[in-house]
């Protein structure tokens, strides 16, 4: 212990001073860290946005090469909210599918009965189905037999199985066309651009034997050869059968096959809008003239008055 000696009035005063001197500790904690948190959140947000942007740029560079074209947007007559499919074009499109596309592509989810009321009459659809021989059975002897088609039969398949289809198309399986416009990104625009987009490969691009160049197909090389040419078939209604007209008609038919309820859905939407507008007016009337008076009504309870003495 340290000793301090002093004098006060002739007396000696001894004071004890401790050896350890306690000094206040420095406090480095940030009590108000709102600014630091904001900076940290800003840095984290910037890093996340940069990572997402880099991922999108890399994905775009990989999925859409310089030699791959995106299909343009075409003014389809059925694209409007209140527009229906062109049934005459659908009928011509079925003719294109039957005479050109059905040689390689199947439509496993389409029946001849689907043609009734949209493309053909019932008699025409029956006659169309009877042109096909369908394998049926077994009969009473246990043997399979062929019979004329009926409305309940599916469209015939071009190949007996998938292996036979691959062998006939250089190892590539032709896709089923029942829902092709809904199964491909771009829908009708992609299918139309694919059918009409065949051309020679650009300089420096080599396509192996058995493949064909189409800039709208991913990768550019496609096994399917160009199948639509000017005057490839003859329309029954006398429409000029140009290649673009054939592609437009068959795409319209495929759009209908992917969504047979297309016209019914839009027709039902129009009915819903008409009924909904009427109900809105009725609801506004009751809200304004009936419910408002009930909602704003107040009930006041008055104290009971004592009877007056005579």
Give a description of the structure.
With 310 residues, the protein is mostly helical. It has helices at 34-63, 87-99, 122-130, 162-167, 180-183, 188-196, 243-258, 262-295; strands spanning 2-8, 11-17, 133-136, 145-148, 212-213, 221-222. It has a domain at 87-110 and 157-262: Cytochrome Bc1 Complex, Chain D, domain 2, CATH 1.10.760. The strands form three sheets. A two-stranded antiparallel sheet has the order 1-2. It has a two-stranded antiparallel sheet with strand order 3-4. The protein is extended and about 120 Å long.
What labels describe this entry?
about 300 residues; 8 helices; disordered N terminus; single chain; mainly alpha; Cytochrome Bc1 Complex, Chain D, domain 2
Helical fraction:
25-40%
Strand content: 5-15%
CATH class identity of the domain at 87-110 and 157-262: Mainly Alpha
Main sheet: strands, sense, barrel: 2 strands, antiparallel
SSE string: EEHHHEEHHHEEHH
Gyration radius from CA atoms, angstroms? 41 Å
The number of distinct helices, counting runs of at least 4 residues, comes to: 8
Name the CATH superfamily assignment of the domain at 87-110 and 157-262.
Answer: Cytochrome c-like domain
Principal-axes geometry comes out as extended
Strand arrangement in the largest pleated sheet: 1-2
**N→C terminal distance:** 103 Å
The name CATH uses for the topology of the domain at 87-110 and 157-262 is Cytochrome Bc1 Complex, Chain D, domain 2
Low-confidence stretches: 1-32, 61-65
Going by CATH, the architecture of the domain at 87-110 and 157-262 would be: Orthogonal Bundle
**How many E strands?**
6
Give the mean pLDDT: 85
Structural class: mainly alpha
């Amino acid at each position: 212990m340290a000793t301090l000696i002093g004098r006060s009035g002739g007396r000696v005063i001894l004071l004890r001073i401790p050896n350890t001197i306690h000094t206040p500790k420095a406090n480095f904690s940030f009590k108000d860290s709102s600014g630091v948190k904001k900076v940290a959140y800003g840095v984290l947000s910037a890093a996340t946005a940069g990572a997402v942007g880099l991922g999108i740029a890399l994905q775009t560079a990989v999925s859409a090469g310089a030699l791959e074209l995106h299909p343009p947007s075409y003014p389809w007559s059925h694209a409007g909210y209140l527009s229906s499919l062109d049934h005459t074009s659908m009928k011509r499109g079925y003719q294109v599918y039957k005479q050109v596309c059905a040689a390689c592509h199947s439509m496993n989810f389409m029946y001849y009965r689907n043609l009734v009321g949209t493309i053909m009459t019932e008699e025409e659809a029956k006659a169309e189905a009877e042109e096909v021989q369908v394998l049926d059975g077994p009969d009473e002897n246990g043997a399979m037999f062929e019979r004329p088609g009926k409305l309940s039969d599916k469209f015939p398949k071009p190949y007996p199985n998938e292996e036979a289809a691959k062998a006939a198309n250089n190892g590539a399986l032709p896709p089923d066309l029942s829902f092709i416009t809904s199964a491909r990104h771009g829908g009708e625009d992609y299918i139309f651009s694919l059918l009409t987009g065949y051309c020679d490969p650009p300089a420096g691009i080599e396509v192996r034997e058995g493949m064909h160049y189409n800039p709208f197909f991913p990768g550019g090389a496609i096994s399917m050869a160009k199948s639509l040419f000017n005057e490839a078939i003859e329309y029954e209604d006398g429409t000029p059968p140009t290649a673009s007209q054939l592609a437009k008609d068959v795409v319209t038919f495929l759009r209908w096959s992917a969504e047979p309820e297309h016209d019914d859905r839009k027709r039902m939407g129009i009915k819903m809008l008409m009924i909904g507008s009427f109900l809105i007016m009725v609801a506004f009337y009751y809200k304004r003239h009936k419910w408002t008076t009930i909602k704003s009504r107040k009930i006041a309870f008055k104290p009971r008055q004592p009877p007056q003495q005579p």
